[in-house]
Write a structure and sequence with these properties.
Blueprint (H helix, E strand, L loop, with lengths): L10 E4 L12 E2 L5 E5 L6 E11 L2 E8 L11 E4 L6 E7 L6 E8 L3 E11 L2 E11 L5 E12 L5 E7 L6 E5 L3 E14 L1 E7 L17 E8 L14 E8 L5 E9 L7 E9 L2 E17 L5 E16 L5 E8 L3 E7 L4 E4 L2 E8 L8 E12 L4
Parallel strand pairs: 3-12, 10-17, 15-22
Antiparallel strand pairs: 1-2, 1-5, 3-4, 4-9, 5-8, 6-9, 7-8, 10-11, 11-14, 12-13, 15-16, 16-19, 17-18, 20-21, 21-26, 22-25, 23-26, 24-25
Length: 381
């Protein structure tokens, strides 16, 4: 092991009467028997390594040092694996001015004791990336996910078992300043649904009133993380996703890049692929009146309700059917008087509509119209 990069230089010493106050390094601790790099937590990396200590009966000292490596010294733990009843860790001391500690271990006999040393290590982390290639009809994607492991810790790992919090473990070595990419998820036929999303809080209600601006509706591929789609074994960590589409001639078209969020089992991954002007939404507030006005003794208005009507005209100029996800927002306390389309509540003030649009015809675009008639309650002026 390179001395400049050595993370652990540990020595076993025997405590005797003539060396009570001295740190005497006699025999080097054996190399790692096994190493596990745990990436369960995205903000910290836990290293677990096993070594065999040759202990003599009585009191032993082990010197553990990590010069040039960013170990959290408060996280270092030592566990006896073979003779936990006969081998006891008595104390831990930290020599001043050194990246080191000394364990005092009491042994009930002469043992070759396997121990596990664990600690949090900085500058070794992982990224998750995705590559999705949609087929020409945009019904399936070939979804691949990669683990990108980056090691700038100062330590070389000749061989290690790398664990995420899901999926299969990797047997892999990685040196200091090395980056490795490993395929850990491969679903060649994941079903997708192409959806257009209009959010009334972020998109203009009447795009025709915007001069010299092309207003599009965001379009995404939806992939459900379930077993029916070949997934569903574990949550999918967030990461950068690159999305492509087959062009029908043996090549692919690059559609875009997105940052996927964490997707629990049963939830949907949304991969943004661009904006479309094939679907046009024109929304207007047709009525907003104050009703049930309450006044104080000075005839000042203190509370009132509202009577509001919103309409949204949705036009599909595509030659194929489409699904528009429409998000509407009603602040405060409210109740719906009448609505001509079904919706679900994402939270107290957010309504989600899934509107299926037929393809356009020779006469023009397919048109649907949403109408919401609602009251907001106990509004303060």
């Amino acid at each position: 092991m390179n001395a400049k990069r050595a993370m652990v230089v540990a020595f076993l010493t025997l405590l005797c009467a003539t060396t009570t106050q001295a740190r005497i390094k006699l025999v080097a601790l054996p190399e790692r028997a096994a190493t596990v790099i745990r990436l369960d937590n995205p903000s910290a990396t836990l290293i677990e390594e096993e070594r065999v200590l040759t202990l003599q009966k009585g009191l032993n000292k082990v010197d553990f040092s990590w010069k040039g490596v960013q170990i959290d010294e408060d996280s270092i733990r030592l566990q006896m694996l073979e003779h936990p009843a006969d081998v006891t860790l008595l104390s831990v001391s930290y020599p001043p001015g050194e990246s080191a500690l000394v364990w005092e271990i009491s042994s009930g006999g002469d043992f070759a004791e396997t121990v596990r040393i664990s600690y949090l290590l900085s500058n070794i982390d992982r990224l998750i990336t995705y590559k999705a290639v949609a087929n020409k009809p945009e019904t399936l994607v070939d979804l691949k996910s990669y683990l990108v492991l980056r090691n700038f810790s100062g330590e070389d790992f000749a061989k290690a078992r790398i664990l995420l919090d899901y999926g299969e473990a990797f047997e892999q070595g990685i040196s200091h300043e090395e980056t490795k990419q490993m395929l850990f998820l491969n679903d060649p036929n994941a079903p997708i649904r192409k959806v257009w999303k209009f959010d009334a809080a972020t998109l203009p209600w009447d795009p025709t009133k915007l001069e010299n601006q092309n207003v599009g509706i965001p379009v995404s591929y939806e992939i459900t993380n379930n077993k029916a789609g070949g997934l569903g074994g574990f949550a999918l960590w967030g990461g950068k996703a690159r999305i492509f589409q087959q062009d029908g001639h043996g090549g692919t078209i690059f559609l875009g890049e997105d940052n996927a969020a964490l997707v629990p089992v049963g939830e949907k991954m949304e991969l943004y692929i661009g904006d479309s002007r094939d679907i046009v939404v024109t929304q207007r507030k047709m009525r907003e009146a104050q009703i049930s006005i309450r006044r104080n003794n000075s005839e000042q208005v203190v509370l009132y309700d509202t009577d509001e009507v919103i309409t949204a005209k949705i036009e599909n100029f595509k030659d194929s059917p489409a699904v528009l996800t429409m998000i509407q927002h009603i602040p405060g306390q409210w109740d719906m008087e009448e609505c001509n389309m079904k919706y679900t509540k994402k939270d107290a003030g957010t309504l989600k509509f899934e509107i299926e649009l037929p393809a356009r015809t020779e006469k023009g675009p397919a048109v649907k119209e949403l109408t919401m008639h609602y009251h907001r309650r106990n509004v303060r002026p």
